[in-house]
Amino acid sequence: MSERQVEVEILRYDPETDQAPKLQSYSVPCQEEWVVLDAITYIKDHIDTTVSFRWSCHMAVCGSCGMMVNGEPALSCKSFLRDYPDKIRIEPLAHFPIVRDLVVQLDDFMEKLNRVKPYIIPKEKKSVSDGQHKQSPAQLKAFKQYTLCINCTLCYAACPQYGLVPDFIGPAAMALAHRYNLDSRDGGREQRQEVVATDEGVWECSFVGACSEVCPKQVDPAGAIQQMKIASTVDWYKEHLMPWSKP
Amino acid sequence: MSGKAYIREMPKTTWWLSHSRYRRYVAREVTCIPIGIYTAVLIWGLMRLSQGAAAWEGFIEALNSPLSILFHLVAFVFAVVHTISWFNVTPSAMRVQIGEDFAPGAVIIGAHYTGWVVVSLIVLFMAGV
Questions:
Q1: Which of A12, A53, A147, B105 is 20 to 30 A off residue A125, Cα-Cα?
Q2: Which of A14, A100, A230 sits opposite B93 (nearest CB)?
Q3: Which domains does chain A have, with CATH numbers?
């Protein structure tokens, strides 16, 4: 197993003492198979115990360890050091307030996620005795891709629209709204449209496409948003040209 | 939580210089400017047409200037770049589900190119080319 010395720069911020974040450099002996998260864990365990960062599963499932690695939003558990040069810079996810070091405040995202009602709002109330809500494989396929979101918020860090207009609902929350809108068991689209089909919703998106490029789960939130734009436009035309048809 | 969370301000005018992905996006958006000007020229031409033969001849005369020809060449190149960049993203914006599968991206992009060719041929036919 080969070892390589990597210079790891971390953007540090202590809210109790610092006016602004500053870079701190560490020289880390890295193993060939290590990911960025391993290098940060090594720093925490052997060099500087004060470094703060979030992580949990170490296998690209929990979505906790998102960071900017050399300016690119990435899951640090999925970013192999062998793919990077001997010097890397790690910063907290862009566009979010820094709580401490690599830990960011996600309250804004959580509030927006809540607003799009990311859960099934049944078309009709069914009791347990009425049996299951059946769904065919084709109906499942229609939305399955959007269920893969792990709320890692890399898409928010990549989206310049979210950085410029913080009121923007943003990629992940809207992809999840789309996921439930497409679900054959769901009847909540009209409620979600109040949040989604607005200037803060789909119409704030200018289709940069960065969200889909950085998504570690290939959810393609940009595609979901464009599909919702088309559906919302169809709604508008139906409402104005065919007022007799129910939207 | 003690202390204050630090907010990093995004540079309002230069943010797009920071990454090739954003530069590509801005380039795509900028292509719409010559297309917009070209549309304005077309509308101006229609207006001159409505004003009679002499006005229309003057408009055609103006189009023959080297500057006008250069502008139309630039607008054409930008329109092609704009069209291709948009056609390339249509598969994610317009998914077509057939049973348990989605139509391949190449089919959706191909359908757009086919539509483009068909409309262009109709326009050329109507123009008597």
A1: A147
A2: A230
A3: 3-104 (3.10.20.30), 107-241 (1.10.1060.10)
